[in-house]
Each structure stands twice: as structure tokens, then as C-alpha cells.
Amino acid sequence: MKHIFMMAALLVYLSACTPGQRPDEEAAITLTDIQGNKVVLNKPAEKIVCLFDPMMDAIYMLQMQHKLVGIPAETYSDKELFTPFSLIDERIRDKRLAIPGSNETANLESIIALKPDLVIAKHMSAGSIRSLREMGIAVYLASSEKYSQVLKELEDIGQLTGAGERAAELAAYTRQQFDAMQSAAAAVPEKDRKKTYFTWAHGRIYATTGRNSMMNDCLEFAGVRNVCTAPVDQPDINAETLISWNPDMIVMWNDPADLFYAKKELSRVTAVEKKAIFNLMPMFFYNPHTLKSLTAAVRIRGWATGQTTEASLEAVREMILKYYGPTTGNQLITLL
């Protein structure tokens, strides 16, 4: 009972001092997130809790990381996130930034204690959203499942943080690059496109990507043909299906190619037989739920066309410098 009274007192206190938009104030920023929720701020957010790592990545690209007061718990527990982010932010290196939730869950009490004016998440219950909004804390839900969503969400976060010009610049650059890749891919006859199989990490070699996915977008921009035609995001298949598809090339998500070479039943698959198995790693540089879907497409195109590793990596380095700026970008590319 004492805990309930303390929580109620905290809610009353924060409702009086949180710098979010009030019903009687004129909204300076109003937009709708990908899930249809109206997001309102009377000025750009100054204190942000971000519980979805692709959106945290976008905040670093927008050079607004100084506004972060809370980050996803995965940032500390997942080496693929901790290593690069600890390199560019000493608060993460020293684990000084609060972790009031994750991509899947949010600790409402911990969020409130940080007194943010904006919370960015992937999932949050309607009740939690309503409670935060009643205290003047805006909530933005993101998805980052498709290329168009990634660009919209970047531009939305640009508006919400006061980095609209930077967001527009990065979005324009990304669109220009993808348009160029799309034109090049369109010039390749369907019969000449390498049949490509994509597989996710952690030994899940039979977990692939369907046509309704960001990684499928990457494959199309790279000018290759996804052998999986299922209209879903991440379908599971079996060895017989993979053998029947007989891909020319396999792209793996941060796993060793030996996972395929060790399976005798797959030895006659063209990609296995010709050792045309490639790996997108470190994963941070090729996250398809961020603007770095572009770098993933560049590497896949390089493998499909026989480009040298150094040439495709140089293109990736240039993009990382563009996305993060010279200071942060130069720190990050030491990991490539």
C-alpha cells in the first residue's frame, strides 16, 4: 500500500513539472507514428527515453545522443550493440545511462523517474501510453520493418528532437543511393540475377526472409533474387526446401559458413558446392532496420557481382561517415 501511495505522489509531482505538451498549450510539433498514434510536443524533446535500438541508432545519426536519458536494456547485454555504442559514448561504456526497459517491455515507474518529455518504443500497452500522455510525456511507437518506414521514422524523430534538417539530409542521401541501386538492379535481366538465400543468426540456418521484409528490400536493391517467395517476414523452412531452391549464393547474418558446409545433405546445393556463402558482420554495420540497410545492400551487391572485398568495404566506410558524421564515423569504422 505504501508503494502505491508513493507512486501516486510521483505521478502528481511529474504531471506538474514534465515539459511535455498540455491540453491548454499550442502544439509546436504534431505527427502520427507508424501505428497510428498521435504524437504531440510543444517544443523539441530535451530528455528522451528510447527503448528500441534501431531508433537509438537513428538518434546517434541525428547527433542528438546528448538528449538520451534512458536506453534499451539490450544495449548492455548484447555485445553486438555494446561494443560499437560503448566506443562512441562513454556513458554507455561506463554503463551510466539508465535502462528502464527493452524492445519488448517497458518499466513505467523507471521511465517516469527519469522525467523524459519523449519516450520512443516498439511495444507499449495502450494503458501505459495513456498514463504517460496524461503527465505530458509524449510516446512515439516505431516499427522499422520496411524501407519506407525506416525513412519516415528517421524524419519523425528529426522533428521530435529538433534535428529536422539533419534528418532530411540523411533521408535524401539514402533515397538517392537506393534509387541509383534500384536503377542498376532493374538493368539486370531476371534470369541473370543470382538466386540468393538469406539466413538469420544464432545457428538458425533454416530461418530465412520472406518477401514482406526489410531484408528482402536489401536483396532487391542489391540486384539479386530472393529464393523465398513467402509473403511473410521470417519464415522457417527445412533442408528439402532449401535443396529444391538451390540458391547460387547464401548470405548469412553473423554466423560461420561451416554451419552449411558441415551438413552433408546440402553439399550439392550450388552455393555450398561453389563456396558462395557470405557473412554480414559485424551486424551493427548492416542492421536492415536502420538506414544501414543501404550498407547491407552494397555488400550483397558486391558479392553478387564479384567486387573485391576492399572495394565494397570502402563504400561501406563512406556511408558510415555520412550517417554518423566524421568524428563518430571514424571511431566506428575501426571495427570494420
Written description of the protein model:
The protein has 336 residues and is α/β, with parallel strands linked by helices. It has two domains: 152 residues, Nitrogenase molybdenum iron protein domain (Rossmann fold, 3-Layer(aba) Sandwich), CATH 3.40.50.1980; 159 residues, Rossmann fold, CATH 3.40.50.1980. It is built from 16 helices and ten strands. The strands form three sheets. A four-stranded parallel β-sheet has the order 4-3-5-6, sandwiched between helices. A four-stranded parallel β-sheet has the order 8-7-9-10. A two-stranded antiparallel sheet has the order 1-2. The radius of gyration is 22 Å and the shape is globular.
- Which regions contain 5 or more consecutive residues with pLDDT less than 50? 1-19, 21-25
Which fold name corresponds to the CATH topology of the largest domain? Rossmann fold
In terms of structural class, how would the helical and strand content be classed?
alpha/beta
- By CATH, the superfamily of the largest domain comes out as Nitrogenase molybdenum iron protein domain
What is the approximate shape? globular
Oligomer: single chain
Question: What kind of sheet is the major sheet?
Answer: 4 strands, parallel
InterPro entries: ABC_Transporter_SBP, ABC_transptr_periplasmic_BD, Vit_B12_bind_prot
Keywords: Signal
Protein name: ABC transporter substrate-binding protein
Keywords:
ABC_Transporter_SBP; ABC_transptr_periplasmic_BD; 2 domains; globular; disordered N terminus; Rossmann fold; ABC transporter substrate-binding protein; alpha/beta; 46% helix; Vit_B12_bind_prot; 4-stranded parallel sheet; signal
